[in-house]
Amino acid sequence: DAPENRRRSLPRGRNIQRITTMSSGEKTFPQYGPICGCCAPVPWWSPPDAEEAAKDGPRRDAPRLLNSFTKTKVPFVPLDGNRVGWYICGPTVYDSAHMGHARNYVNFDVIRRVMTDYFRYDVRFIMNVTDIDDKIVMRAHLRRSEAMISAAEAVGGLDALTAPLKALLASGEKNLGEQESLTASLCAAIVAKDPTAVAEPDWTVQDGYLALAHAFEAEFMEDMRLMGVARPDALTRVSEYTEKIVQYIQTIVDRGYAYESNGSVYFDVPTFEQSPNHKYAKLNKEALKNVELAMDGEGALAADASEKRAENDFVLWKASKPGEPRWPSPWGLGRPGWHIECSAMCSDILGEAVDINGGGIDLNFPHHENQLAQSEAHYDIKQWVNYFVHTGHLHIDGLKMSKSLKNFITIRAALKMYTARQIRFLFLLHQWSDPMDLTPVQEGDAVTGFQQMEAAVIAEKTFVEFFHSVKGALRGLGCAAGYSVDQEHTWGDEERALSSAIDAARAGVHAAMIDNINTPAVIKSLKELVGGVNKYLGSVAADAVRPLLVESAARYVTMILACLGVAETTGGIGLGDIAGGGGEGGRSDSKEEAMAPVLDLVVKFRDEIRALARSGADAKALMQACDRIRDVGLPELGVKLDDREGGALWKLSTPEELRREAQREAEAKAKKEEQKRREKEEAARKAAEKEALAKVPPNELFKQGEYAGLYSKYDEDGLPTHDKDGEELAKAQRKKLAKTQAAQKKEHDKFLAKAAADQLGKTTI
CA of 334: how far to CAs of 134, 242, 292, 361, in Å? Predict the structure, then answer.
């Protein structure tokens, strides 16, 4: 869609707001929440015109999304018919992506899939890549400096040049100009001694930062592929937009909402806020007060704050200092600020009206607040975005996962512990807009898993087992496709109960989808349907199963799981492979290549059985051979056998997942055996204590052990009469002690009898 053809949502007269009158007579609007159904939830947010947007015809119920503008769930209404323009903030590519990134982008992938595949919106999904950033520039310089130091040490004799560079790096100072100069001098000296020692002798930060960014961008996109995250419809890079960003800033300057200072350009927050058509702090009402957090958005290489007219003003264009990449502009050589990039790139594709803008909740302020202000100043409009959605933080033991805190686990590391589907189930079991906590399981310093993953693994296994059961039932009927002319299809009470379970699941899933795309509730409804199907399959005879009904339930579960990105959209039944690209390298094996490992195993098993039979082996040896192919051979091919009455059931998985499952089962078995050992030791200890106590004569019981020192006088049978202070014991207390002594006498008599019997046995021998 051309930006000029997209209709913009503007406030209309019928959106009347209720106004509160304060004691001073000043009229104010409520800060949060709707007052009534016909009013906008907050005074400065205008809901889209539902009648105008729906003129193309009626559609199914729309979801109610948690809109960060209103802090409430509001009905989603697109700007233009069924088309949705959606922009999300992508990665800043200076390092490997971690599990916090995984949760953010998987969550947006799920929401996008649901909006597209369930609610059937025509979504245009845009994601940016921030490849011009202070962190990228500093990392590029650091890598170059470290490479030159390593090369110098290999060449030798350059300590005088490496020492000042090492000292600067150790100091932590961000003087990139001096660092660049020292590194270049060192490079020249290395090349003079050995021209082959440096791979890129003409390296500059203008090219070096981009090479680093491209490497991490490629890694990030591969991580997303492995996680099953769909590609965006458009990808925008800051490095490809510098000219358009300059033009975008110039428009803001021309409208009087920005000013130049020492070669940089700053957004004029007070002027914008005082304009009758504009409002700052739409997303965060404390934005004007939180100056410290606002400055975090300026970057590590920010200029002196004295350049700005007001402390809330933020940079649109940074004058480049020595050692920083630079591009031409009317204000001199420089580079874009962080916030302006998203405004310019999003506007270039979606124009002056955006349906949805999103990102992690940490971007709410200052990034998204400033992004809104810039865009609305550029177009001189009241509302640029209709819905702002933010995903919740991922915490490690209560702290936000971040590289600065050094508490992050990379996506690649997580994928060595769990499958992509299991990680996606982990995120699906937590509402996307809520914070989520991960508790690492560690062996020494190494993280070996997360406590919360147990529920995700169980959820995945529930659906895997469900699909295996359904496929097994259909194969048993000889109608794997769900239909056979020889199969009876009339319904009885069991079928009607299953039909009701399907209807209930559909209603539950739809209610959850409408309610802010509540994925935990969706999974709950699907699991209830799985339980209904399992109950049905367990209550009717195998040859009486109604395949069409069972297949209908399984297809529905598959379809919804596909909407959530944990199943393939192949039209069949089951989970399939969620990673994009068609498998490893996108290669499709031939039939011979695919079947070769299976045929090799079958031939090897046949040879083993024949050899055993010829040798006259007993049934135990034959059963052991059968167990080996079940427990070792087939799992290495991704096949699991479940022994059942009436014949084994085969299930397809991956060798890696079956190895993990076997490891989990072995660990559980070892844990159970360890528990049994401890219980046995405890029982033996108690038995030994009991036997030792039984050796004590009743008249000596209260004079030793746990009773030692508690009493001062005893009767002729050894029963205490006075406590340690000489006070006579109460009658009830003596009665209780007498009962204990009687029990001891019984145990002591048993001990004496056993000892006598043992002695008699020895004498007889």
Answer: 12, 10, 24, 29
